[in-house]
């Protein structure tokens, strides 16, 4: 049995302590968004919350996924990982919501509206369901809607505040260091962006994935009701199950890093291109270089160099970041010309 996530009760959404929003471990904030009108509508009925959302429909086509009943709500790859077990569609938000309402039987096809920007598809929603605390963080706000669905364990770079407004959701969470025990699939060919665990959490194949037992020793679980919010730190693995006929989640995500910083995933791609396949002795050399300059920088890194001559060894700032990026673009351009 997974351990429950730490819970905090009785907080005001507009006076959340910063240390909670930036927690390095998941925290479940019970009832944080209970006063939102959308939560009140959801507690009335599924029809009431759908009618509430339709008030804000921008009429822009939304992307949604469908999967046959046999996959039991698990949006995933096909058997040989050359494709997926679901189909992409585009259609009006209101019509898709009605389709989800009609697919309420447990054996119905799975229907899922993935991350959709609130301000694009439901303009005006945030004016009534206010959470100003994250405005200073320049966050993105998205909505996720579906019937009974399962999203494979994955991790995201931004910090995430996930708020359940309708239905029930179960998050199963793992620390970042469980990467090897989750049997992650391809990096560049994925169902929705991030690489995902290949383990079926409802029916684990321990013969194929024996280390998953070790991952479960570190798992945390958050069972969420309407009004609950989950602080999900950057790069924590999370498997998400939607447990009712209609499930709606609103999330806010942001990065604390300066805007001039690029995604570390791009650095990972470059390291795979330029370092991973070097001979072992050369990889060990570069491991030490990365330790010295990147992972454990200190006095030995730059104090022997005059301050004005340290270049990229000095603390990063916007102009220096632009200069480094320009040099990389020039290098990539020259490489492409070869």
From TrEMBL:
SMART domains cross-referenced by the UniProt entry: JmjC
Lineage top rank: taxon: Bacteria
Alphabetical list of SUPFAM superfamilies matching this protein: Clavaminate synthase-like
Domain JmjC positions: 111-269
InterPro entries noted in UniProt: Cupin_8, JmjC_dom
Pfam annotation, one family: Cupin_8
PROSITE patterns reported for this sequence: JMJC
Protein name: Cupin-like domain-containing protein
Lineage of producing organism: Bacteria, Pseudomonadati, Pseudomonadota, Gammaproteobacteria, Lysobacterales
């Amino acid at each position: 049995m997974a351990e429950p996530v730490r819970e905090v009760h009785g907080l005001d959404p507009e006076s959340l302590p910063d240390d909670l929003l930036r927690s390095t471990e998941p925290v479940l904030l019970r009832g944080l968004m209970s006063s939102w009108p959308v939560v009140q509508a959801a507690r009335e009925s599924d029809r009431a919350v759908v009618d509430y959302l339709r008030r804000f429909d921008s009429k822009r086509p939304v992307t949604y996924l469908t999967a046959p009943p046999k996959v039991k709500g698990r949006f995933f790859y096909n058997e040989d990982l050359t494709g997926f077990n679901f189909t992409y569609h585009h259609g009006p938000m209101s019509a898709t919501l009605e389709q989800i309402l009609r697919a309420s039987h447990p054996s119905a096809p799975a229907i899922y509206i993935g991350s959709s920007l609130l301000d694009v598809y439901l303009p005006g929603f945030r004016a009534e369901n206010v959470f100003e605390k994250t405005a200073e963080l320049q966050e993105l706000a998205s909505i996720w809607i579906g019937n009974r669905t399962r999203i494979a364990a994955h991790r995201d770079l931004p910090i995430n505040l996930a708020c359940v407004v309708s239905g029930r959701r179960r998050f199963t969470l793992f620390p970042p260091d469980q990467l090897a025990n989750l049997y992650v699939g391809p990096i560049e060919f994925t169902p929705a962006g991030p690489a995902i665990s290949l383990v079926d959490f409802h029916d684990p194949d321990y013969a194929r994935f024996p280390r998953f037992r070790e991952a479960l020793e570190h798992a945390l679980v958050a069972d969420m009701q309407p009004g609950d919010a989950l602080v999900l730190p950057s790069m924590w693995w999370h498997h998400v199950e939607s447990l009712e006929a209609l499930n709606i989640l609103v999330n806010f995500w942001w990065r604390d890093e300066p805007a001039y910083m690029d995604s570390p995933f791009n650095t990972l791609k470059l390291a795979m291109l330029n370092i991973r396949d070097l001979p072992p002795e050369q990889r060990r050399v570069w491991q030490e270089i990365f330790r010295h300059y990147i992972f454990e920088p200190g006095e030995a890194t730059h104090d022997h160099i005059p301050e004005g001559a340290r270049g990229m060894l000095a603390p990063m700032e916007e102009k220096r970041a632009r200069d480094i990026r320009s040099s990389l673009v020039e290098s990539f351009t020259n490489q492409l010309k070869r």
